[in-house]
Amino acid sequence: MRQSTYDERLILKDVSIDRLLDNGDSSPRLQQIDFELSPGEWVNIAGVNGSGKSSLARLLAGLTIEGVQGTWSRGFAGNGPSPYVMQQPDAQLFAETPREEIRFALEWRGMPPHEIMLQTEEILTFTGLSAIGDIPWNRLSGGQRQLAAVAAASAGETSLIVFDEATSMLDEQSMVLVQGLAKKLHQRGTSIVWVTQRLQEITSNARVVAMLGGSIVFDGIGEEFLYGSAEQVGQGPTPCQTIGLRLPYLSALALELGRLGKLQRPYPETTEEWDQALARIEAVPR
What we know:
With 286 residues, this protein is an alpha/beta fold. 34% of the residues lie in helices and 22% in strands. The protein has a 6-stranded mixed β-sheet, with helices on both faces. It has a 4-stranded mixed β-sheet with strand order 1-5-2-3, with helices on one face. Helix 2 packs across helix 3.
């Protein structure tokens, strides 16, 4: 892969990766990917298993993948690799406790020793892990270990963090905690790449990049990804359904009520919005 001249955005241009099969043939992991990410942006990457979303996520994190062709510029993300949070926290935890893990991450990033202790305590406080900072991993839940992995990944004020289905193995409460921490980092100016199959995590105004067969087949806002364009109502599958993902229950309900003419876009998202929408539907005479 060739690096282009510096641009503030992170850019992939005409990027492809081939996978060598056992019979000697090759199949594409990524096909002619054009992608841009701006500083401070949040992008959701969606797709079924094998769609290429993890390969794209690894490239965006600056991790090495053999056989990459195309042109790239990491722009604001810099030349080194960015933090990459995986599904299984145990695969990326090296120390014995959350506090030691954060210290290890700061040492690895070359922070002066006199700053490490102060920064470690600030990160533990920021991530809500102070109370369990010295508890060994085997006494912590999967969600707590994942929070610690995110805390270590965010150590050192990184400009970009990639979450590769980081909530897929967590229960609902732990998922909310990890996503909440990602939102706090985003509010602080960190760019977030959020890889997911859990479509309830995608809001209507969020940017969504959808992948199928190693290609980007959709790049737009969450509302159009889940429900299709305003002109598409009732006319075939939505982009979400096209790539083989199932709509969450409430999104499917909203889409069906919209097709029946009982609900208008923008469709409700919060509990309060749903209560108001259903009350209006019940109030309409039959």
